[in-house]
Amino acid sequence: MADKTDKGFTVVDRRIEAEDDKPEEPKSGAIPLGEKTAPCEQPAGACDREAVAEAREAYQDRAEADTPITFPSFLLSLHASALIHLGLIPEPVGGKKVLDLGLARQNIGLLEMLQDKTEGRRTPEENNLLENILYELRLAYVQIANQPDKGEKK
Known about the structure:
Blueprint: H1 49-64, H2 71-85, H3 101-117, H4 124-145
């Protein structure tokens, strides 16, 4: 034990340096942004590139508008999303009415959670808006869920 000496430790830098500060090449299967890809091999309607491009443009236009997001506008956004999933209004991109009760229920649940978490901190106008939205969505959900032909609308 007396012969043992402390030799310290050695640090080895194993980082890979990028040549000329170029970004790293994407891994196999990854597609760089803006690069054209082969046509979709999914069923018809599952891969609508024009609709995706329109949605991307619409999103960028809204993002650049610098519209402040308020609590009422957030509530109305969730309300519109629930109405779309209930099949009461068409999707913004594509214009189809699609029924998805699971997603509709999820949006209603989000609004209920917001109602619980913001109790006592809402203005009377926000309170009235939230109560009316929840009443309308719950009523529509029950009516649609109880229909005998509640299958997917296309």
